[in-house]
């Protein structure tokens, strides 16, 4: 091998870093769009990750809440943003659910967004107002069967992840309830606490504090093992509903066309942030587990989720507002 052949090979590993240096990325503040109202774990996780990235990159990372239409308004804004690595989307299961909900969706999450990394997972939890009188999942199911359509559940909006999570539970238990949509899951949980609706399903990250405070009862969590954050709450398997296994996930994406070297740098910086003790502790306190993935793994995960939620949406005949 001569010198002319050897030099490009030696330089190859440094080309992405050189390209970033030449482009000056990030030359301006980075915006993370959260497609939901403040108060949810999606919002909190964006601020936690944003704080770490601000310190690591030496550039301000700001969070912008753009709620509405089950997360699609914010996702649309992100997909239509310039692919310069300065606009990111931090979202959850709703990204996969939107495909089945909106036939005329203005973006395709599998095509118009570049997946950067998964950042967290959390079990779902059934949250019930104490005054309902139910102390187990079995008792809730028995009540729903005895009074079809009378019990109510709140969600973060028609077609939101909290809505479809409950529709999946109703489907596997053969029950019916009244759906009451709100502007964000935090508002729905507040209504359960206030006693105006009977229950809600949310991520453990969104409900753990209320169960610890005793303002809500946690009757079941998804997954094969009990959640470390609430070890007293049985799994749905233990509660007699083994077919219910809906878990929440969160991830970061960027507009299609974002340079691969920027995606790779973001992925590496996110991995570093997710290892920070203060972030790990904050996630754990909220009932979430940091999860890093490659862009390819996140893309494959999203591709698996899309048909699963299409089926739930079709069976429940869910129509967006």
From TrEMBL:
SUPFAM superfamilies: Periplasmic binding protein-like II
Signal peptide: 1-21
Record keyword Signal present: yes
One Pfam assignment: TctC
Keyword Signal found: yes
Coiled-coil ranges from the UniProt annotation: none
Alphabetic keyword roster: Receptor, Signal
UniProt xrefs under InterPro entries: BUG, Bug_dom1
Entry similarity comment: Belongs to the UPF0065 (bug) family.
Entry protein name: Tripartite-type tricarboxylate transporter, receptor component TctC
């Amino acid at each position: 091998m001569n010198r002319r052949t050897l030099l490009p090979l030696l330089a190859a590993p440094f080309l992405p870093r050189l390209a970033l240096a030449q482009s000056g990325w990030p030359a301006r503040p980075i915006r993370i769009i959260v497609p939901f109202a403040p108060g949810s774990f999606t919002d909190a996780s964006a601020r936690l990750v944003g704080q770490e990235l601000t310190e690591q990159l030496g550039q301000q990372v700001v969070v912008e809440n753009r709620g509405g239409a089950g997360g699609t308004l914010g996702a649309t804004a992100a997909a239509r943003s310039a692919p310069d690595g300065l606009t990111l989307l931090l979202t959850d299961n709703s990204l996969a659910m939107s495909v089945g909900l909106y036939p005329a969706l203005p973006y395709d999450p599998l095509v118009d967004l570049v997946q950067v990394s998964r950042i967290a997972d959390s079990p779902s939890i059934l949250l019930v107002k104490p005054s309902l009188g139910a102390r187990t999942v079995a008792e809730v199911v028995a009540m729903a069967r005895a009074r079809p359509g009378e019990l109510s559940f709140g969600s973060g909006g028609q077609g939101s992840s909290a809505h479809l999570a409950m529709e999946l539970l109703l489907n596997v238990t053969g029950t019916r309830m009244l759906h009451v949509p709100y502007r964000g899951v935090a508002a729905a949980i507040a209504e359960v606490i206030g006693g105006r609706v009977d229950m809600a399903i949310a991520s453990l990250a969104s409900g753990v504090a209320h169960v610890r405070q005793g303002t809500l009862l946690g009757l079941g969590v998804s997954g094969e093992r009990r959640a470390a954050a609430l070890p007293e709450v049985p799994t749905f398997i233990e509660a007699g509903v083994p077919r219910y296994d809906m878990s929440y996930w969160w991830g970061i994406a960027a507009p299609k066309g974002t340079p691969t070297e920027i995606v790779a740098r973001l992925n590496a910086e996110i991995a570093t942030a997710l290892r920070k003790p203060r972030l790990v502790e904050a996630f754990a306190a909220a009932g979430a587990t940091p999860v890093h993935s490659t862009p390819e793994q996140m893309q494959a995960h999203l591709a698996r989720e899309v048909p699963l939620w299409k089926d739930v949406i079709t069976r429940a005949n869910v129509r967006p507002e």
